[in-house]
Amino acid sequence: MRREGLMRHVATRLLGLVPTLLLLITIAFVLIRVAPGGPFDGEVTLPPEVRANLEAKYHLDEPILQQYFRYLGDVVTGDFGPSFRYPDWSVNELIARGFPASATVGGLAILIAFFVGTGIGVFAALRQNTAIDYSLMGVAMLGISVPNFVIAPLLILVLAIYAGWLPAGGWDWSWQSMVLPVLTLALPAVAYIARLTRGSLIEVLHSDYIRTARAKGLAERVVVLRHALKPALLPVISYLGPTAAVMITGSVVIERIYGIPGLGSYFVQGALNRDYTLVMGVVVFYGIIIILLNFVVDLLYAWLDPRIGYEEIR
Length: 314
Description:
This protein has 314 residues and is mostly helical. Helix content is 75%, strand content 0%.
């Protein structure tokens, strides 16, 4: 019965992804078209015949509705089209070129944030209202309050310039070049996860079924790890869905500061150049990642807390 509920839930959620993605594509397409300027507007004014040829090549001379359905048809086949400003590259190739670096930094950051943040949160929850608890949560609040663009220069100053342990920027796929951007991305997430875990675990530890488990004589370690931790992670999993998407698809600020050739850098450059297809491709790709990760979060809910049925998380 539970397996049938799972399959029904998966099918329902997958069907629900289609209108969400269609709405995302439509909104992004309209916004980028109504914004002032165009992909061929620049410091040098193109002759009218050259401009007309370029617009014809990229189908910009067609009615806007026809352009929309043409793009929609290309996206269905997995083709994000050619880049307007990188004529030798398609948008698919640019995404494939930038995504590995973004995914590596973001993936490592989210793993560190999850394990470290969860550990700190559990440690603080088990010592509620003690000096250790207050100290850890105070540091966590500081981590939440300080933005990435402040953390990054401080880490560069301390670890790269003063200590000389790590490079201040650049990207060569070595672990040394990954440490600073991964830490910069991970630290605020560690703080969020620590606070979420602490608050949720304290609430779960006061539940009736936890009191029952303790009354049966189970060791505190067993009560926490086997009975309390999984349901306490529900708010953390909810937070990780969109956060992981942001980290994995590239943080614009971090990539610009550390000179990482990731997806965020291409998005910024595409926006500055009014490269319609590149911006649209990154937005749609980013949206797909968010939708899929939120779908995974929904499935994890019922696994983390068996009291939640698949019908409840539709």
